[in-house]
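Changelog note: in this version the structure field was regenerated for every chain. One regenerated record is shown below for reference.
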Amino acid sequence: MGAEDRLELPVVGERQSLREQVAHALRAALITGEMRPGVVYSAPVLAAQFGVSATPVREAMLDLAKEGLVEAVRNKGFRVTELSDRDLDELTEIRQLIEVPTVTRLADPGRAEEFARLRPVAQEIVSAAERGDLLAYVDADLRFHVELLALSGNAHLVEVVRDLRNRARLYGLSQLYARGTLTDSGREHLALLDALEAGDAATVEHIMSEHIQHVRGIWADRPE
């Protein structure tokens, strides 16, 4: 891996296990597209950037391989899994089938207090978008959708969606920010909460469907 391929990775500390910290940092680099599909990354080279031994990096990479995010390349390292347009279309279809009806059923003014607890997370998404902090955007976006879906009471559904979102990384975020439209995408979360608190199921269904399709456009790095 040459100098031009060097990743901006943090030096990890001791609060979490090294394996967990490395996996989190690599997953973030995958989600934002800093680690590029098709490129082979060496565990010892990444370990040097993290300031740790190669062992926790290999262990973290194996965890990501189980999630389908990378694949092992014998005697070389790990390659970021490439997703085709068909893969992205199919993942989008699954998200539509699961998330749209699940979130629509949550629309109820009587649950306004639960939705209000998600508003600070939605605002985090907007704030991250405004300052171009892509890692914070992705982190807050994932927390928002997971916590919202958790209100359905179906833990298995939440884990399925979490896995889908991990596999279908958000491509094109930096280009979206450069075009000045990332903040608009972020504000969709606030509009969704408004509709949920109002008990407006039709609007919730519309926003969720449009939001998932918008995300598909981000993956493809092209506007809807």
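Spot check on this record: The longest helix spans residues 85-104. DSSP finds eleven helices and three strands in the chain.
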